Amino acid sequence: MTDDATSIDRPKALIVISSADQLPLSKPADESIDIGWFLVELAAVMARFEETHDFVLATPDGKVPTLDINGMALAMHGGAHLGTDTARLAMQADVLGFDFEKLRTHNPQLVARRESELALLRRRLGRMPVSQNLPKTDKEAASIRDEIIASLADLPEKKWQSIGDLVARHRDPDDDFSLADFDFMYAPGGHAPMVDFHDNPIVGELLNGLNENGVLIGLICHAPIAMTSARYRLDAAGDVVVDEDHAFKGAHVTTVPKYGELGMLEVGYPKIPGEKTRLTYYVDVALEKAGYDVALTLNPSAVKVVWDAEHNLLTGNGPQSVDAQADRLIDILRRRSTR
């Protein structure tokens, strides 16, 4: 399998990951936290297509993305059971006093999934940095950061295309590369997309180009913030054009809710101890303001996947939804192939 954009051997999938590694905060003022992208929100998709598709890897600027250590907490690997797994692990650690080894022994399925996803990372995505542990990073996840870094250290660094280069190649009549050659595009979350997927004209040009060529777009958790960029296009000279009546306007989407985010800011890994911690904006609020129909769940850990066929847009609300979203992606592509 190759991640080279010129491969023509098999169907292709475009994997777009944020390369941001710092998330600005509104409170405390002028502070930011180390962040990255969540492996758990991508691995289930890549694993299902690993034997059938070639992956083209891209970031907005072509820089290597940063793996977020906070996405490696065992509870994150519970899929639809994220809520109950989080509660059980907290009880085992805080009430029963389990050490890290005992936690792993009592949660073998979560450990096995994490290991399989790290193996996929090493196999398909190569060497990349890992975010710093934060004061509120899950302690068990924090304990394996050095091990993860060591397991990536001797791997080759993959070629990450920039979105701008992909758009330029698509427009070049002398280049055989075309966005139409992709079966789908998929982007995982973590907080990183809030930085370089939001109100980014080159992201908007990519989304519109994919849609115009009938390519399915998959976004999960914080990654749907990319849709705030859909009002931007780039003209032939590369200048930004704003279209408030763009093709995606009014699309049905889901994402992480503000009230779930606020909960994380109070007790989760983004929290700065001793300080009121707030983000500069919230994804669901920004999407609603941009004209999207945003569907949320009352329980932030409940599974929610939304397929908007009119806009070729498949969104999920967090790591708990990745398995359902991957299954839905397979079903949609299968139906398309039999038309």
Poorly predicted runs of 5 or more residues: none
Count of separate DSSP helical elements: 12
Going across the major beta sheet, what is the strand order?
5-4-1-6-7-14-13
If you consult CATH, what is the topology?
Answer: Rossmann fold
Query: Per the principal axes of the C-alpha atoms, what is the gross shape?
Result: globular
CATH superfamily: Class I glutamine amidotransferase (GATase) domain
InterPro entries: Class_I_gatase-like, Prot/Nucl_acid_deglycase
Organism: Tsukamurella soli
Keywords: Lyase, Stress response
Protein name: Intracellular protease/amidase
Q: Any chance you could write out the topology, listing elements then pairs?
A:
Elements: E1 12-16, E2 22-27, E3 32-34, H1 40-49, E4 54-59, H2 82-95, H3 100-105, H4 108-125, H5 139-143, H6 145-153, E5 161-162, H7 163-171, E6 182-187, H8 193-196, H9 201-212, E7 216-220, E8 232-234, E9 240-242, E10 252-254, H10 258-267, E11 278-279, H11 283-289, E12 293-295, E13 305-308, E14 313-316, H12 322-337
Report on the architecture of this protein.
This is Intracellular protease/amidase. Keywords: Lyase, Stress response. It comes from Tsukamurella soli. Belongs to the peptidase C56 family. HSP31-like subfamily. The chain has 339 residues and is α/β, with parallel strands linked by helices. It has one domain (12-80, 111-337): 3-Layer(aba) Sandwich (Rossmann fold), CATH 3.40.50.880. It is built from twelve helices and 14 strands. It has helices at residues 40-49, 82-95, 100-105, 108-125, 139-143, 145-153, 163-171, 193-196, 201-212, 258-267, 283-289, 322-337, and strands at 12-16, 22-27, 32-34, 54-59, 161-162, 182-187, 216-220, 232-234, 240-242, 252-254, 278-279, 293-295, 305-308, 313-316. It has a seven-stranded mixed β-sheet with strand order 5-4-1-6-7-14-13, with helices on both faces. It has a three-stranded antiparallel β-sheet with strand order 3-2-11, with no helix packed on it. A hairpin with a 4-residue loop joins β13 and β14 (313-316).
